[in-house]
Design a protein that fits this description.
The complex is a heterodimer of chains A (about 450) and B (about 500).
Chain A (H helix, E strand, L loop, with lengths): L3 H16 L3 E17 L2 E19 L2 E8 L5 H16 L17 E3 L5 H4 L3 H15 L4 E17 L5 E16 L6 E8 L7 H12 L12 E8 H15 L2 H5 L21 E3 L21 E5 L2 E2 L6 H7 L12 E3 L8 H4 L5 E5 L1 E9 L4 E7 L3 E4 L2 E5 L3 E6 H4 L3 E4 L3 E5 L11 E5 L1 E12 L4
Parallel strand pairs in A: 4-6, 8-13
Antiparallel strand pairs in A: 1-2, 1-5, 2-3, 5-6, 6-7, 8-22, 9-10, 9-12, 10-11, 13-16, 14-15, 15-18, 16-17, 18-22, 19-22, 20-21
Chain B lengths: L3 H16 L4 E18 L2 E19 L2 E7 L5 H15 L16 E5 L11 H15 L6 E17 L4 E18 L5 E7 L1 E2 L7 H4 L9 H13 L6 E7 L1 H13 L4 H5 L28 E4 L20 E6 L2 E2 L6 H11 L11 E2 L8 E2 L4 E3 L7 H6 L3 E13 L5 E13 L2 E6 L3 E5 H6 L1 E4 L6 E10 L4 E9 L2 E8 L4
Parallel strand pairs in B: 4-6, 9-16
Antiparallel strand pairs in B: 1-2, 1-5, 2-3, 5-6, 6-7, 8-21, 9-23, 10-11, 10-15, 11-12, 13-14, 16-17, 17-18, 17-19, 19-23, 20-23, 21-22
Helix pairs in contact in B: 1-2
Classes of the chains: A alpha+beta (about 450), B alpha+beta (about 500).
C-alpha cells in the first residue's frame, strides 16, 4: 500500500477541499524504473529513475483545470500547492458548452497482483548476464543492440466526491535484443515481456535468432508492388490493432466523423468474422488495471465481436459533450484478440498457401487517410519469403499501404496460441501496456506498395 | 531551489565519483521545467493543463560505459550520485567498445532564449480572449470542426561537469496550431491547418504567438482552402514533380536528413527502437546525398528557434556547420562520446569536434544525439511563383497528415493535407488526399529547384520522438520551397 505519510497528506488536503465544496481528483504516480541499453555489443547506458508526480484536476461548474507537479508529496503543503494551482486554472478557464462529467473513484480498490519486488529491484548485473549469454551463444560475428526496461508503477487516486480510494502497484518489463550483420546490415530481433522477475529467458532469444539466421545468409528478395498473402507475426499484429483502435474506435474521432467507422453503427459488420477484440483488464497476458485514471472501475469491454462493431471507447470529455457514458479507458488498455484454430507453428499454418511473405514486425506505422482507414508501414526484423511453409530467402524492407477493411477483412488464419506483446510507451511517465494477440495471423490480398534494395 | 549547500553537494558528488575512478561525470539540475497546454475544440476549452517538473539527473562514465540516475527528490542527492556510479560500474562488466569523452577545457556561461513577454506571465484570461477571437475567425458555414492548440514551455536548468564546466540556461518555447475540418463530397473528413512558425529572427515569447504574420493571419486562408478541398477530386497515382512548401518540407528534411544524420543512429545505438541509418562512417566526404542544389546545415545561431539552446546537455556550445555541401555529405549531428567512438572505429579522424547535439528532454532522461536546427539553405531559383512557372507537370504540397519512414531512413511515405495541381507552369486545381513516396537518395538527387530567401522560414517541431527511455524533443528547421522531379504520388488503385 502507498506509504502512510503520502496517503495522509493527500487525504487531508482532499478532505479539506471536499468541505469547501471543491470537486477535485488527486492522482499520485510514482515510478521506479531501470533501463539498460545495449549498443555495439556493449552496455551503453544503465539508468535508474525514481520519480513522484501528483496530478490534480478540478471541475468548477462548466470550467475545468488541471495541474501536475513532481516532488515530495509526503508534505501537505506541496499537495495543497498543486491543488491551488489547479483551482486557479479552473477559476479562469472558459466555461464549456456542456456539463463536464465529474471524476469519481467508484469503489475502494487495492491491487498488487502483478507486483514482484524482485523485478522492481532487479540488479543490472543480472541483465548484463542475459545479454552476455545471448551474444556468446549466438556468435561474435554479429553486432548486438537492444534495451531492457523494468520497474514499478504505483498509482493512488482519491477524489472529493467519494470517500473511496484506488491504489495499484505493479511491475513490468520490456526486453529487446537486435542482431545485426555488420556488413550486410540485416537485422533480426527478439522481444520478451512480463511482470515477474525471471520471465526473460536467454534461451528464447537464442531460439528466435537461430530460427532465421541461416536463411538470412541467402541473397535477399526484393518484393515487387502487388497483392500478397502475408503472415504477420505477433509484433506486427499488435501494432496494427493499436493503430486500428486509435484511428477508428476512439469516441471523439467516431462522433466527429474522423474515424473510418464513423458511418457504422453498433452491430454493423466491419471486419472479418474471424476477428473478435475486447479490452479485458482481468487477462494475465496484459498489464491489468482495475480502474482508470478518472477513478472509473474497468470491466470486460467487447470492441469487435466476430467482425461486428460492439462498442466505441469514450473518454470522459467526449462522453460529456455527446451525452454518452465514459468507458473507463483513460489508462493502458488490456486488448485481447481471440485466438483462432491454426497450428501453433506459423510455417505449418501456411504450408499449402504457396508464396507467402512472413512479416514479424512493422516499423513506423501511420495513417495516411483516417477516414478511409488506410495505414502504411514497412517490414522490419527477420522478414522472409516462404513457399509452402518453407523459408526461401530474406526480404528487403517492404512497404504495406492498405486499409484496415481489406487487411482485417481478409483474414485467412489465426494461431490457436496467444502471446503477450508489450505496447508500453514511456514518452511521458511509466505506464505499462500489453496486448494478448495470436502468435501469427495470415491475411490475403494485402497491398505491398514499395520495396527498398536494403534491409 | 539552487542553494549554496545544494551546489556544494553537487560539486562534492562529482569529485567523489571521479575519485572512485569515473572518467567523467555531469549533473543537470532543473529548478523548474514548466509547460502549459490549452486546447480549444469547437468552442470548448477541452484541455487546460499545466505542469512543473523539478529534480536532478546525474551521468557517470566509468569503464567505458554510462550510468545515469535521476530523482525528483532533491534531498536524495548523495543516494542519486551513488546509484549513477553503481549503474556505470556494473555496466562496465560488459563493454567491448569503451566510450570516451576525451578531455575538454571547462566551459562557463549562460544562455537565455530571447523573450519580450514571458508566456507564463500572461494571464489565462488574456490567452483565452486571444483564442476565442481566433476561433471566431475560423467559424464558417462549411467548417464542421475547429481546433486551436497552444503549448508553452519555460525551463531553468543548471549544468556542472567534472571538467569544471558550469552553465545556466533559461529556455522558452511557444508552439501553436489552428485547424479546420469538414466532410468532403464523399463523406470523408478533410482538414487544413497552420502552425506557428518563426521568421528565424526576433524574440520567442508571447509576442510571437500573437504576431499575425506567423500563423493567425493564415486563418482565413485555411478556411478557404478547406472549402476547395471539399469539392476537390482525389489525386491520381503517377509520377510527377512535387513542389514542397515549408509546412511539409520541414518534415521531409526532419525524417530523411535529420534522423539519418544522428551519429548514434549511424553507429547502431538506436536499432532496437528508432532504427539505424543508411549512412556509414565511410560516407562522409563521398556520399552524394542529393543534387548540387542541396545545401544543409546545423545552425545553432538562429536566434529564434526551439533548436537554439546555447549549450547542449554535456556543456558543448551549440555549433554552426554544414551537413551537406552542394549535395555531398560532409558532417552529421554529434556528441562527444559518439565522435570518439566513430573516429576509433573508422581508424581516422572523421569528426574533429562535437556538434553540440547531445540533448535531453528532461532532467530524468540521459542525453542522446538529437537534431538542433537542421536547415536547407535558400537557393537561387526565385520565389514560389518562379518555381511554379518552371514546372510542367506537378503538384504543390503542404502540411503532413502522416509520415512513415523505413528503419534506416532509406525510404519514406508521406500524406499531406492538400495539393494544388500544376500544369504547364500554372496552378490549375486543388486535389485531395495527396500522398507521395520515394527512396531518400533518389529523391534528393531529383531536387531541381530551391526557393530563395523569400520562401525560407523556420518551422517549429515540438514533438520529435527518439530514444529509450523515449524522449520528445523540440527542434527547428529552416526550410525554403523545394521542387523534386519524378516522384511517385497518390496510391495505386
Amino acid at each position: 500500500m502507498i506509504d502512510n505519510q503520502t496517503k495522509d497528506a493527500i487525504l487531508k488536503i482532499r478532505d479539506q477541499a471536499a468541505k469547501k465544496g471543491i470537486k477535485a481528483l488527486f492522482t499520485l504516480h510514482r515510478e521506479k524504473s531501470h533501463l539498460m541499453r545495449i549498443g555495439n555489443n556493449s552496455i551503453s547506458l544503465s539508468t535508474s529513475v525514481d520519480l513522484t508526480r501528483l496530478d490534480v484536476s478540478v471541475i468548477d461548474g462548466r470550467k475545468e483545470g488541471s495541474y501536475s507537479a513532481m516532488g515530495n508529496m509526503e508534505n501537505e503543503k506541496n499537495v495543497e500547492s498543486v491543488l491551488n494551482m489547479a483551482l486557479d486554472k479552473a477559476a479562469f478557464a472558459a466555461p464549456k458548452e456542456y456539463d463536464p462529467i465529474e471524476k469519481i473513484v467508484e469503489k475502494e480498490t487495492v491491487e498488487d497482483f502483478q507486483f514482484d519486488p524482485q523485478l522492481e529491484n532487479i540488479q543490472p548485473e543480472n541483465k548484463a548476464n542475459v545479454y552476455r549469454d545471448i551474444m556468446s551463444n549466438t556468435g561474435d560475428d554479429y553486432n548486438y543492440s537492444g534495451s531492457w526496461d523494468s520497474g514499478s508503477t504505483e498509482l493512488f487516486i482519491a477524489g472529493t466526491t467519494s470517500p473511496d480510494t484506488a491504489w495499484r502497484k505493479g511491475t513490468d518489463q520490456q526486453f529487446s535484443c537486435v542482431l545485426k550483420h555488420p556488413e550486410h546490415k540485416w537485422e533480426l530481433a527478439s522481444y520478451q515481456t512480463g511482470w515477474q522477475n525471471g520471465t526473460v529467458e536467454t534461451k528464447k532469444t537464442i531460439t528466435d535468432f537461430n530460427r532465421v539466421i541461416d536463411i538470412y545468409k541467402q541473397p535477399a528478395h526484393s518484393v515487387k508492388a502487388g497483392e500478397y498473402t502475408i503472415l504477420f507475426g505477433s509484433q506486427a499484429i499488435a501494432v496494427i490493432i493499436s493503430m486500428l483502435l486509435w484511428s477508428g474506435f476512439e469516441g471523439r474521432k467516431y462522433e466527429d466523423k474522423i474515424s473510418w467507422i464513423s458511418d457504422k453503427k453498433i452491430g454493423d459488420k466491419i471486419l472479418s468474422d474471424k476477428l473478435t477484440l475486447s479490452d479485458d483488464p482481468a487477462n494475465m497476458n496484459t498489464f491489468r488495471f482495475g480502474f482508470d485514471l478518472n477513478g472509473k472501475a474497468r470491466h470486460l469491454f467487447p470492441i469487435v465481436e466476430e467482425g461486428r462493431l460492439a462498442n466505441i471507447l469514450y473518454d470522459i470529455d467526449t462522453a460529456g459533450k455527446y451525452g454518452k457514458k465514459p468507458t473507463a479507458h483513460n489508462i493502458s488498455y488490456s486488448i485481447i484478440m481471440q485466438p483462432g484454430e491454426g497450428p501453433e507453428c506459423p510455417l505449418e499454418g501456411v504450408k499449402n498457401m504457396g508464396k507467402v511473405l512472413f512479416i514479424p514486425a512493422l516499423h513506423y506505422v501511420h495513417i495516411p487517410n483516417a477516414s478511409k482507414g488506410i495505414f502504411t508501414g514497412s517490414s522490419r526484423f527477420s522478414a522472409v519469403l516462404l513457399e509452402n511453409g518453407e523459408m526461401v530467402s530474406p526480404i528487403y524492407s517492404s512497404r504495406i499501404t492498405d486499409s484496415f477493411f481489406n487487411v482485417l477483412g481478409n483474414i485467412e488464419l489465426f494461431s490457436s496460441k496467444n502471446v503477450s506483446v508489450n505496447q508500453s510507451s514511456t514518452y511521458d511517465r511509466r505506464m505499462p501496456e500489453a496486448f494478448s494477440v495470436p502468435s501469427y495471423m495470415v491475411c490475403t490480398n494485402v497491398k505491398i506498395t514499395d520495396s527498398a534494395d536494403s534491409f | 531551489m539552487l542553494t549554496e549547500k545544494l551546489e556544494k553537494d553537487i560539486i562534492r558528488g562529482i569529485e567523489n565519483n571521479i575519485e572512485k575512478g569515473a572518467q567523467y561525470c555531469d549533473v543537470r539540475l532543473y529548478s523548474e521545467d514548466n509547460s502549459e497546454s490549452l486546447v480549444f475544440y469547437d468552442g470548448n476549452l477541452e484541455d487546460n493543463a499545466a505542469s512543473v517538473e523539478r529534480g536532478l539527473g546525474i551521468r557517470v562514465l566509468y569503464g567505458g560505459t554510462w550510468g545515469f540516475s535521476a530523482t525528483s527528490r532533491i534531498d536524495n542527492v548523495a543516494e542519486t550520485f551513488a546509484q549513477a556510479f553503481n549503474n556505470a560500474k556494473s555496466a562496465s562488466l560488459l563493454v567491448k567498445i569503451p566510450l570516451d569523452m576525451g578531455r575538454l577545457p571547462a566551459v562557463k556561461g549562460s544562455y537565455s532564449s530571447p523573450v519580450q513577454r514571458d508566456p507564463f506571465t500572461v494571464p489565462l484570461k488574456e490567452k483565452l480572449d486571444f483564442i476565442v477571437n481566433l476561433d471566431n475567425i475560423l467559424k464558417a458555414d462549411h467548417v464542421q470542426r475547429r481546433i486551436i492548440w497552444l503549448y508553452q514551455q519555460k525551463m531553468n536548468n543548471w549544468f556542472w561537469n567534472s571538467e569544471g564546466s558550469h552553465i545556466e540556461r533559461n529556455l522558452t518555447n511557444c508552439f501553436a496550431n489552428c485547424m479546420v475540418m469538414a466532410q468532403d463530397s464523399d463523406g470523408h473528413m478533410q482538414r487544413r491547418s497552420k502552425s506557428l512558425h518563426s521568421p528565424g529572427t526576433g524574440t520567442r515569447g508571447w509576442e510571437m504567438v500573437i504576431n499575425p504574420d506567423l500563423w493567425v493571419g493564415r486563418a482565413e486562408g485555411i478556411k478557404s482552402e478547406l472549402s476547395d478541398l471539399l469539392k476537390a477530386p482525389e489525386i491520381e497515382y503517377g509520377k510527377r514533380s512535387v513542389i514542397i512548401l515549408p509546412g511539409q518540407g520541414f518534415l521531409q528534411v526532419h525524417e530523411t536528413i535529420g534522423h539519418p544524420l544522428e551519429l548514434d543512429r549511424i553507429l547502431g545505438y538506436e536499432l532496437s527502437f528508432a532504427g539505424g541509418s543508411f549512412v556509414n562512417l565511410d560516407s562522409f566526404g563521398k556520399l552524394r546525398y542529393g543534387s548540387e542544389k542541396l545545401n544543409v546545415n546545423a545552425y545553432g545561431s538562429i536566434e529564434n528557434s526551439p533548436g537554439t539552446f546555447g549549450f547542449d546537455d554535456e556543456g558543448t556550445p551549440e555549433n554552426d556547420y554544414m551537413l551537406i555541401d552542394k549535395g555531398v555529405l560532409v558532417n552529421c549531428l554529434t556528441s562527444r562520446a559518439m565522435i570518439s567512438e566513430a573516429n576509433k572505429t573508422a581508424g581516422k579522424t572523421i569528426f574533429d569536434q562535437s556538434g553540440g547535439a547531445s540533448r535531453s528532454t528532461a532532467f530524468h532522461k540521459a542525453p542522446i544525439d538529437r537534431m538542433t536546427n537542421v536547415n536547407v539553405l535558400p537557393g537561387q531559383d526565385g520565389n514560389l511563383d518562379d518555381i511554379i512557372s518552371g514546372t510542367d507537370n506537378g503538384i504543390i504540397l503542404d502540411n503532413p497528415t502522416s509520415w512513415s519512414i523505413g528503419s534506416n531512413r532509406e525510404h519514406f511515405h508521406f500524406g499531406c493535407e492538400i495539393a494544388w495541381e500544376v500544369k504547364s507552369g500554372k496552378v490549375t486545381r486543388t486535389l485531395k488526399n495527396p500522398t507521395y513516396q520515394g527512396h531518400t537518395l533518389e529523391f534528393y538527387a531529383n531536387l531541381t529547384a530551391v526557393g530563395d530567401a523569400s520562401t525560407w522560414l523556420v518551422e517549429q517541431v515540438p514533438n520529435c520522438g527518439k530514444g529509450e527511455p523515449n524522449q520528445v524533443m523540440e527542434i527547428g528547421h529552416g526550410i525554403p520551397v523545394m521542387r523534386f522531379d519524378h516522384v511517385i504520388t497518390g496510391e495505386r488503385s
